[in-house]
Amino acid sequence: MRDFRKYGVWNDAISLVTDIYNYLKGFPTYERYALSYQMRRSAVSIAANIAEGASRTSSREFIHFLEISIGSAFELETQTIIAYNLKYLDDTQLKQICARLLIIEKRLNKLISTLKT
Q1: Angle, in degrees to the nearest 10, between helices 35-54 and 8-24
Q2: Looking at residue 25, what DSSP letter applies?
Q3: Nearest 5°: CA angle at 10, between 78 and 72?
Q4: With the C-alpha atoms ordered 113, 98, 44, 72, is the resulting torsion angle positive or negative?
Q5: Are the C-beta atoms of residues 77 and 101 closer than 8 Å to each other?
Q6: pTM of this prediction?
Q7: Predicted confidence (pLDDT) per residue in 26-71, tens digit
Q8: CB-CB contact of 69 with 45 (8 Å)
Q9: What is the spatial distance between Cα 47 and Cα 8, in angstroms, rounded to a whole number?
Q10: Taking the chain, what is the end-to-end CA distance rounded to the nearest angstrom?
């Protein structure tokens, strides 16, 4: 069993979740159970799958959960672009979120590569 808290990418993902929740406070209330709900779930899923994967005994299983985390990051990026197109987020917010997601995606890919060797 691995300590998921030691992975910098997990810490990055947790920080992103907090920021996503704060951005979503500015969304219209009618989005509470639509786009904002999906964005919360995707953001939480990134960190949660890193943690769940770390609990697995084999590297192969851990890699599987890391790949799910990457998928959630891509989902969140797509949802962020939709939110921007709907004018729920401004240029700065879009760029900040997408830049942080890119870092997380790269770190997850690096961790996967390391586990495969």
Answers
A1: 160
A2: T
A3: 25
A4: negative
A5: yes
A6: 0.93
A7: 999 998 889 999 999 999 999 999 999 999 999 999 999 999 999 9
A8: yes
A9: 11
A10: 18
Nearest to 98 by CA among 11, 23, 6: 23
Using H for helix, E for strand and C for coil, what is the string for 52-108? HHHCCCCHHHHHHHHHHHHHHHHHHHHHHHHHHHCCCCCHHHHHHHHHHHHHHHHHH
Total residue length of the chain: 117
Determine contact, residues 17/43, Cβ cutoff 8 Å.
yes
Q: What residue ranges define each of the domains in the chain, with the CATH number in brackets?
A: 4-116 (1.20.1440.60)
Task: State the residue for tokens 């899923």.
Answer: 45
